[in-house]
User: What shape does this take?
Amino acid sequence: MPTNYIFIDFENVQPKSIEKLIGQPFQVVVFVGAKQTKIPLGLAQTLQPLGVSAEYVQVSGIGPNALDFHIAHYLGQMVERDPKGYFHIISKDKGFDVLVEHLRAKKVRVLRSIDIGEIPMLKISNDLKSDEKYRAIIRNLKTRGNSKPRKDQTLRSTIVAMFQNSLSEAEVNHYVSKLKSDKFVSVIDGKLSWTRLPDIAIMSVAASKSPANV
Assistant: This one.
């Protein structure tokens, strides 16, 4: 499973779901401002179990974009070191979106979220109902942009990894078949061709109005 790298803009946002990272394949870097000399005890206690998978970086300079530049620098270094990783910027600062768009155009799997709990992988629960799992799969695939699986086996492996190998082969077959029957993906010359995936909010509304839920 690819490593997920999380870059937290602690000067901009104090995430509330850090405990969800424990036991997960994440590398966490918390960026703090030059004037932020104290770390909340709760944050330190939550990150401690992550051991070497978590670190702090204090910005050395003072300026309106000093911390942003540090995150961009570390992100670039990590992308070069592990181009197959998943990268998450945790910040409310929409200024990062230009960088995210640029990197995604280069097929780097990167996403900005306002809280750790918004990371697609952490939203997935094995206790979800079948239709909720299906929407979670679509949400995850949609975040991949142009990096969606191009082979049937890769798609199956992706779905299996999302649920940490807890799905049966029959369940995986069901979700792959449903993606095809819903015409989100088709096979052309042995390769997968994707159409525009739907907005999850719209899917949820449609599901709530279906005969089975009325």
User: Anything to note?
Assistant: The longest strand covers residues 26-32. The mean pLDDT is 81.
